[in-house]
């Protein structure tokens, strides 16, 4: 997997989805100002303005925060037009890389969205890469729903419920993602895994 994706490539792929316009429509429909939305999402008004104007490419965690406020799925932002079939292919060259955070100097993971073009998904699937990190270098996070990890190669330490769980090639794990958890690559060669998340039960 490429460690970097050019801005031009990202802009080209995302342009057809008008993510900024969709964000603005959601905000105006709820009659929220940028400052109000910022309070709900924890994002600055200036950052939200740049997202709406297409001057900044949103990260997956940023979109997730916004989606939770408006009670929509991430697929809302990536639906370009109605599809007649649920069968969809995402070519390897079309996948979008989402690092942990653009501001993180040493991100503990990168996720490639494997089904970003599919509408009405009942799950989110990612190809994840976890570079080697020292204990204590990674930060916990949480989100609604469940999470499943299947290891493709390398060694990964998942911290959850106050315990460290070591996963190796061929191992898998399933857990409640609303509990704080973190990932730490524990092999010199970056660990790779398929990560699947599901929405919370209603």
Model description:
The protein is of the alpha+beta class. It folds into two domains: 17-78, lambda repressor-like DNA-binding domains (434 Repressor (Amino-terminal Domain), Orthogonal Bundle); 92-198, Jelly Rolls. Helix content is 25%, strand content 25%. It is built from six helices and nine strands. It has helices spanning 7-15, 19-29, 34-41, 45-52, 60-70, 75-78, and strands at residues 97-99, 110-113, 124-130, 146-153, 156-160, 163-167, 172-176, 181-185, 191-198. Strands 1-2-3-9-4-7 form a six-stranded antiparallel β-sheet, with no helix packed on it. Strands 6-5-8 form a three-stranded antiparallel β-sheet, with no helix packed on it. Helix 3 packs across helix 4 (45-52). The protein is globular.
Give the gist of this structure.
With 202 residues, this protein is an alpha+beta fold. It has six helices and nine strands.
Q: For the record, give the distance between the C-alpha atoms at the N and C termini, rounded to a whole number.
A: 36 Å
How much strand content do the residues show?
15-25%
The beta-strand count equals 9
The major sheet is characterized as: 6 strands, antiparallel
Global structural class: alpha+beta
Q: Could you list the spans in which at least 5 consecutive residues all have pLDDT below 50?
A: none
CATH superfamily of the largest domain: Jelly Rolls
CATH architectural designation of the largest domain: Sandwich
Strand order of the largest sheet: 1-2-3-9-4-7
Order of SSEs: HHHHHHEEEEEEEEE
The number of distinct helices, counting runs of at least 4 residues, comes to 6
Q: Kindly provide the name of the CATH class of the largest domain.
A: Mainly Beta
- CATH topology assignment of the largest domain: Jelly Rolls
Mean pLDDT: 84
């Amino acid at each position: 997997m490429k460690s970097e994706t050019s801005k031009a490539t990202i802009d080209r792929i995302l342009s057809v989805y008008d993510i900024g316009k969709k964000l603005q429509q959601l905000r105006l429909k709820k009659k929220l100002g940028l400052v109000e939305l910022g309070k709900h999402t924890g994002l600055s008004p200036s950052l939200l303005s740049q997202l709406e104007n297409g001057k900044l490419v949103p990260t997956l965690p940023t979109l997730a925060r916004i989606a939770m406020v408006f009670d929509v799925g991430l697929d809302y932002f990536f639906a370009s037009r109605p599809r007649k079939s649920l069968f969809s292919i995402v070519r390897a060259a079309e996948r979008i890389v989402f690092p942990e955070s653009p501001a993180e100097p040493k991100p503990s993971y990168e996720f490639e969205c494997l089904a970003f073009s599919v509408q009405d998904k009942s799950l989110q699937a990612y190809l994840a890469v976890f570079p080697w990190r020292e204990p204590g270098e990674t930060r916990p996070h949480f989100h609604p729903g469940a999470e499943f990890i299947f290891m493709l190669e390398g060694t990964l330490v998942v911290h959850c419920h106050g315990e460290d769980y070591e996963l190796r090639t061929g191992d898998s794990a399933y857990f409640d993602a609303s509990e704080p958890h973190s990932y730490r690559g524990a092999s010199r060669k970056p660990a790779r895994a398929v990560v699947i998340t599901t929405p919370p039960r209603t």
